[in-house]
UniProtKB/TrEMBL annotation:
Signal peptide stretch: none
Family: Belongs to the binding-protein-dependent transport system permease family.
Ranges that cross the membrane: 20-45, 82-105, 117-137, 149-172, 193-217, 273-290
GO biological process: transmembrane transport
Keyword Transmembrane set for record: yes
Keyword vocabulary terms for this entry: Cell membrane, Membrane, Transmembrane, Transmembrane helix, Transport
CDD domains: TM_PBP2
Name assigned to this protein: Sugar ABC transporter permease
A cellular-component GO term for this protein: plasma membrane
Lineage top rank: taxon: Bacteria
Amino acid sequence: MSANAVKSRDFHRLSSVWNIIFNCIAGGFAILCIFPFLFVVLISFTDEGSLARDGYQLIPAKWSLEAYKYVFGSGDTLLRSYGVTIAVTVIGTLVSLLLISLYAYAISRKSFKYRNFFAFFAFFTMLFNGGLVPTYIIVTQLLGLKDSIWALVLPLAVNAFYIMILRTFYITSVPDALIESAKIDGAGEFRTFLRIVLPLSLPGLATIGLFSTLGYWNDWFNALLYIDNPNLVPLQSMLMRIETSMQFIMQNSQNSSLSLEAMRSMPQDTSRMAMVVLATGPIIFAYPFFQRYFIQGLTIGAVKE
């Protein structure tokens, strides 16, 4: 074995002491990332009176479920909004993956005559857009999607940035020789895409799928614009309306003794934390399904030595 090989092996080998130190550092960073959310969960289960008296504490002096009772006080409305958000997230993510993967694959192939035009067309939308008013007119009047679940799905279905990421992944990770061999065997474009390209593109698709899932789950603005039907209000918009109602009661509490009494019995700070838990908790469980491919997908286009 050469001297350089021995030095390289010794350089990459860590002693048990340094291994423990680096593991402790990594664990500390992990705790710093997780602690804010855990602290929000603890505050949401804190009694409002003890929170106002003692402030924010790691271990609450008195536990309470009043915040969640207040948020769930709308009856089945909140559960319905959960159902709408889950449906929009699942349908939107599937539609988004379908459209983005096909578009990115087309502009990644050198044999496609108009690849430069459609690549520029997607890139141009990253710099300029038609504006809010024209978009509203197209969605509501031209497409007639107002008070429709598709008004929450289609505006976010295609993202030019995701197209560019997936195009780069196709170019760097899918060998042209495989596609050419499939064509020699008589496979068409769609069969080649389904049988060869997609199985090799799972890391990129998982990354784009996670980004799309987060986008649909956290979207509230499209519901504010296009949804008036209370049965189609998603979770984020519903929580925003609850927050708005709380602020209205607080701002007008001095004008009415009834409003003052309602404000005193209303868990203000803890209910806000409960909304954060309800809004972010379920989407956290989606990450393990993408974790297997997520790191590899983030290194799309990385330079290899």
